[in-house]
Amino acid sequence: QIVQFTGRYETEYVNAVNAGINIWSDRYTPINECNIVINLINDESVEGDQGAKDVLIGEAKFLRALFYHDLARTVGYEPGREVNGFNLSAILRTEPTLGSANADDRPRATNLEVYEQIEEDLLDAIQRLPEVGAGTSAVARANKTAAELLLARVYLYWGRNTEAADYAQRAIAGDGSDLVDAADYVESWDDAAFNFHPESVFESDLQVPDWSSVDGANNSLHSLLMNNTSGSQFIITASDELVQVIESEPSDVRSGLLNTENLGQEFAKWQGNKGTLPFQENIPILRLSEGYLIAAEALGPGAGDVFLNTFRAARGLAGGVSATVDNVLREKRIEYMAEGHRWYDLKRLGRDIPKPAAADVDPVPYENFRILPRLPQSEIELSDDILVQNPNYN
């Protein structure tokens, strides 16, 4: 919930019309860069070691899949979860756009077409990428375990639970890395002690130039969520409801990532102490813990229990818990607090979006048009209406 009203994120907080997540423009530049790399490396005139070329193609396909899944889960519904039959998703581009000469207006692909392209990219990337150790500096680049885990996530969103469980277990097996011990969990988020989170299989390795401007003070997670560095924004804090969920099991070590003594219920997950520059931190994108929780949900009560309870033990919690969807969602809500998973988990399951009592607004029904964002109107107009806007934004 918002702890300090500065004008930022206030419309998003109450899900006002036109305040939806909008990454439409942000993802196509890196997608095109991936297309350029793939096209160039596949050119027979390009010399080089074939093994190295395979890895570069695998990295580009992994990243393209990651960016397309971000787009697909944000701007459209998941396959099988459509509202009123609306199934449009992102625009698919797998060839490079090098200039206006080969730029063209295209309609949006269906959600199924986009998911099939993501699946194709990841299956190919898995065959090309190396296995690396979780928590090592190598996870700053795409790797086999990361591709397997991302594919497991994609299958879970797609409703293909058998495949989701399969690839989650492959990612868990990976290089044999384990979950962090409960006693070490809180410290594992200390960037000064661990440059890379010990459970990370893919992590954004932010360097000084990334946060050397006002971006560091304005947009880093440390700045937005904590209040112990001069210049911090400190806008967002844990909701009362989240704190209650965490405190319902007193042995949960993740409670150590909340500071309820200062102003608000401050997240202590993002320390911003990677280097000498304030606010600098790495951002884990894929962690081993997600593999356990995907396997638990996909397999369900019975077969999935061992994955859920293995995960719970690593967070200081008792076993004997059934792997129901609600029990898995409870763990994900705590595990990924302030990491941006919750909204997407509720959306992929077709559930309403609850709001904190402090927001004083009603939940957002899944059938409400605000679940999807408005696409940039300039893009609609430039396409001569080839590009279809999301429902009820016309």
From TrEMBL:
Q: Which GO terms describe its cellular component?
A: cell outer membrane
Which SUPFAM superfamilies does this one have? TPR-like
Where would you say this protein principally sits, based on its record?
A: membrane
Q: Which residues form the RagB/SusD domain?
A: 322-393
Where in the cell does this protein reside?
Cell outer membrane
Q: Which residues form a coiled coil?
A: none
- State the UniProt keywords alphabetically: Cell outer membrane, Membrane, Signal
Record bears the keyword Membrane: yes
* The keyword Membrane belongs to this UniProt entry's keyword annotation: yes
InterPro entries (UniProt xref): SusD-like_N, SusD_RagB_dom, TPR-like_helical_dom_sf
Q: Where is the SusD-like N-terminal domain positioned along the sequence?
A: 13-156
- Pfam families attached here? SusD-like_3, SusD_RagB
Would you identify the family this protein belongs to, as annotated? Belongs to the SusD family.
Designated name of the protein? RagB/SusD family nutrient uptake outer membrane protein
